[in-house]
Amino acid sequence: MAQPKTIIDKIWENHIVHQEKGKPDLLYIDLHLIHEVTSPQAFEGLRMKDRKVRRPDLTFATMDHNVPTRNRHVIKDQVSKKQMHTLKENCEEFGVPLADIDHPDQGIVHVIGPELGLTHPGKTIVCGDSHTSTHGAFGALAFGIGTSEVEHVLSTQTLGQAPPKTLQVKVEGKLGTGVTAKDLILAVIAKYGVRFGTGYVIEYTGETIREMSMEQRMTVCNMSIEAGARAGLISPDETTIDYLRGKRHVPEGEAFEEAADHWRSLATDPGAAYDATVTIDASKVEPQVTWGTNPSMCVPVGGSVPNPDDKEKDYEKDEIQRALQYMGLEADQPMTSVTIDHVFIGSCTNSRLSDLRKAAEIVRGKKVHEQVTALVVPGSKTVKEAAEKEGLDVIFTTAGFEWRDAGCSMCLAMNDDIIPSGERCASTSNRNFEGRQGNGARTHLVSPEMAAAAAVEGHFVDVRAFSKNSQFADKEV
Amino acid sequence: MEPIRVHTGLVYPMNRANVDTDQIIPKQFLKRIERQGFGQFLFYHWRFDDDGNRRSDFSLNEEKYNNATILVAGENFGCGSSREHAPWAIQDYGFKVVIAPSFADIFYNNSVKNGILPVKLGSEETQEILRKAEQESLKLTVDLENQLVCDEENLEFRFDIAEYHKEMLLNGWDEIAVTLTHADKITAFEKNHAY
Ligand code: SF4
Fold first, then answer.
1. What are A443's strand-pairing partners?
2. Is B98 in a helix, a strand, or coil?
3. How many structural domains comprise chain B?
4. d(CA B48, CA B40)
5. Is A56 in CB contact (< 8 Å) with chain B?
6. A470 pLDDT more than 60
């Protein structure tokens, strides 16, 4: 029998266009996603050298980072407006399909790729955006690239890449009630740090992952970059295939069954070797809250803010000290004593229908705390419409949430959705870097359920102790 | 892209780990559609207060670092987003070399593609440079050809760099032009590829 291979090896081998000793492999790219922020200089580069887009049919663009989430067409910031307009002009000039602000498919690029069925197992997918790792949930090799690389892919449909090392993150055991995919990935990053994945592609394996829905898998893969890995993926299985069946850009009928057989064959072979493996016991994971200024600065909700004096090395003390100062927290303060001013439910980590359902389940019949401003921003127009069909918008607005239009919004605050300096936000996004949600803003990363519970209480609470309404509990997507 | 062979310059020491791309260039400056002009926004919220005044507590604002061209930092430099605006800002500000014990993958790649030389040294070696540069003005020579970092005294560290990255920096290649020499292979690949 042939040597057992990982899915990473298999996808790699299927995409080598050219190999030369001492050089990166030239890989073919099956899908190139584009947004307004990281593409203008790439198109400009093409124009300057009189180059074309080689495969507009394998390229797909949307607007997400700058778009307003209310009063859609009032873009006060002229520079934002110009950037969006430039994308439109570039797409027209080079023949690239675009879901612009008025298009029914518009949304966060990593939400709409899977939704439209553009994301398939076995594809190589790139985008000038680090959270491209999200698409790995389907068993695609998907990673973020810089603008020079965007230009390279536009022009050649290939990318030079050195073969990555492989890291298996094996998750066994059952996640407890109220503990989510978000808590799992935060706990992994808290345990191993923000650079343990550097130089690796992660494959998430194990029974816990197999039992997850596609949307939960996307949440896990989304944050691979926060562990330092450029890509994270999950071997396709029946859950993957069921999700894709009937999606717009997926083959139909017999062709679908053929494709599905091919996808199944890509899964990692039993006994395949990885360069490294770590094992996580999911049953020990608790709901997480970050306290600091990178995603590894994270504790279970029942825990407290760390004390710099407990660290040995000076630079470790400094790092904690600096984070505490920025975050306006005291050493040893219990996380549940931390009061919040804002709640943001959205971003490519947690803005899909199942995320909104879970959050709605918590706030149904309750009120947002009077000191809290709370926002729900669906990941795409499609998610928004589906949520409205089930009445989730009414649950949120009755509770006092604002119900907005699709976009990145407060995940990085490039539009008008900005947290004022010194104010504190419970956020379902993926980065708590200084200033991420606004200059001086203080971000705590949590799951949608934890964010919803915090919105009601005005401070962090353990969602497991929070009374629940179970109308949506058993519905999965 | 400008080739880089040997560079001698003044060090700016930044003894912090995990300096992320949101700090290097905050998002409100990502809206421009040009490649140039990002240097004025480098480390913006560390350099300037809310009213746009220079902060006295951030050392890059000190006059003695005005002509620094070598940025030395802690582990995992450039983590976070894929924004190439980060190396553009570093370069436009005047830095030609960044030294750190480790870099985020995408940042590293983006730097090489813009002709910034990212130098990976050991943690102890980096700490030694940081210590020296914090005490007194430190000039380093970074020799890409021989993969050496030296000062004017007896400090001399070797660094590793992938052969291909080295070639690219030494020659200032246009990578797209190189790839397009394989256009026939790409076309042949497309004929047989199952999408
Ligand atoms: S939602 Fe946030 S992380 Fe995701 S693509 Fe948009 S800005 Fe990036």
1. A425
2. strand
3. 1
4. 11
5. no
6. no
* Domain membership flag for residue B146: no
Give the residue-averaged pLDDT of A345-363.
98
Helix (H) or strand (E) segment spanning residue A452: helix A448-457
| Distance of residue B94 Cα from the nearest chain A Cα, in angstroms | 20
- What the block records as the tokens of A17 is 């266009």
User: Can you tell me the mean pLDDT for A175-184?
Assistant: 97
Which residues of B are less than 8 Å from A157 in CB distance?
Answer: 186, 190
- The arithmetic mean of pLDDT across residues B97-124, rounded, is 96
Whether A152 has its CB under 8 Å from any CB of chain B: the answer is yes
Q: Which residues of A touch B106 (CB under 8 A)?
A: 130, 144-146, 230
Domain of B45, in residue numbers: 9-140
Give all domains of chain A, ordered by start, each with its CATH number: 7-278 (3.30.499.10), 290-469 (3.30.499.10)
- A18 contacts on B by Cβ (under 8 Å): 182, 185
What distance, in Å, lies between the first and last C-alpha atoms of chain A?
38
Q: Which of B31, B50, B102 sits opposite A66 (nearest CB)?
A: B31
Q: Give the CATH number of the domain where residue B129 resides.
A: 3.20.19.10
Over the stretch A55-96, which tens digit does the pLDDT of each residue have?
999 999 999 999 999 988 888 888 889 999 999 999 999 999
Q: What is this structure's pTM?
A: 0.94
**Tokens 């919105």, located at residue:** A455
CA gyration radius, chain A? 22
Closest approach of B47 to chain A, Cα-based (Å):
13
Ligand 1 center–CA A107 separation, angstroms: 11
CB A102 within 8 A of CB A182: no
Tell whether B168 is covered by a domain. Answer: no
- B147 belongs to a structural domain: no
Question: Per the domain annotation, does B27 fall within a domain?
Answer: yes
Distance CA A362, CA A463 (A): 9
Instruction: Please indicate whether, in this complex, the C-beta atoms of B179 and A51 are within 8 angstroms of each other.
Output: no
Q: Indicate yes or no: CB of B179 within 8 angstroms of CB of A156.
A: yes
